[in-house]
Amino acid sequence: MISAELASQLAEIGLDFYRRGWAPGTSGNFSAVISRDPLRLAITTSGAHKGALSATDILVIDERGRAPAGTGRPSAEAELHLAVVRARGAGAVLHTHSVWSTILSDAAEGPGVEFEGYELLKGLEGVTTHLHREWLPIVENTQDWVAGAAELEKTLHRYPKAHGFIIRRHGLYSWGENLLQARRHIETLEFLLEVTERKRGKTWRV
Ligand SMILES: [Zn+2]
Fold it and tell me: In the chain, N or C terminus with fewer CB closer than 10 Å?
């Protein structure tokens, strides 16, 4: 059962992210752990508009991504939320489809993007200096997220300090102990993606 408080927190994040252009159309999905044993996640349904989320757009899934009959269809990417919770012990997972994560992951030829030297890096949990080097892995896009989630878990174990990952030409995932921390991480990483891409593509002169 999803509390009214959790539903309103998710709706508020949805509206904020939608207005920032991070969840156009019905893209993106958000989840929060409501029970660890047995594992239960509250997650936005497939096709829900993130700028107008209501309690009926959020359902509860089990550790295999199944929702009780008649409660709605979970996103195909629910598998990724479960993989992040398993690999990182996260309490909340947020996913955006921003312009900057899409462009930068398209342009990047390697398996990730690196950020270093920015004050805002300190928005990431455990980071205390702008000199920190953050590696944001890129995973390839697919429509088969059952297989994709297994690949993702390997990537998360390969980069145990990463605070998020990007799916190529698709969007950003980040997480935290709770929704507040996950939101801070998304805001931080979206900022770093935008700064990096604007700098890469800059046409102005000083
Ligand atoms: Zn997506």
Answer: C
